[in-house]
Amino acid sequence: MKTTIAVAKGDGIGPEIMASVLRIFEAANVQLGYEYVEMGKSYFDAGHSTGMTAAAKETIERLGLLFKGPMETPKGKGVKSINVTARKVWNTYANQRDFRSLNGVDTVFSKAGIPINLTIIRENIEDTYGGIEHLLTNDVAVGRRIITRAGSAQVIRYAFEMAKRKGYTKLACGHKANIMKLTDGLFLETFYEIAKDYPEIESSDIIVDDLCMKLVSRPETFQAIVLTNLQGDIVSDLCAGLVGGLGFAPSANIGDNISIFEAVHGTAPDIAGRGIANPTALLLSGILMLRYLGLTTAAANIENALLYTLEQGIHTGDFGDKATASVNTEAFADTIISNL
Amino acid sequence: MKTTIAVAKGDGIGPEIMASVLRIFEAANVQLGYEYVEMGKSYFDAGHSTGMTAAAKETIERLGLLFKGPMETPKGKGVKSINVTARKVWNTYANQRDFRSLNGVDTVFSKAGIPINLTIIRENIEDTYGGIEHLLTNDVAVGRRIITRAGSAQVIRYAFEMAKRKGYTKLACGHKANIMKLTDGLFLETFYEIAKDYPEIESSDIIVDDLCMKLVSRPETFQAIVLTNLQGDIVSDLCAGLVGGLGFAPSANIGDNISIFEAVHGTAPDIAGRGIANPTALLLSGILMLRYLGLTTAAANIENALLYTLEQGIHTGDFGDKATASVNTEAFADTIISNL
Ligand SMILES: CC(C)[C@H](C(=O)O)[C@@H](O)C(=O)O
Ligand SMILES: CC(C)[C@H](C(=O)O)[C@@H](O)C(=O)O
Question: What are the residue boundaries of the Isopropylmalate dehydrogenase-like domain, all occurrences included (chains A, B) (predicted)?
Answer without folding.
Answer: 4-336
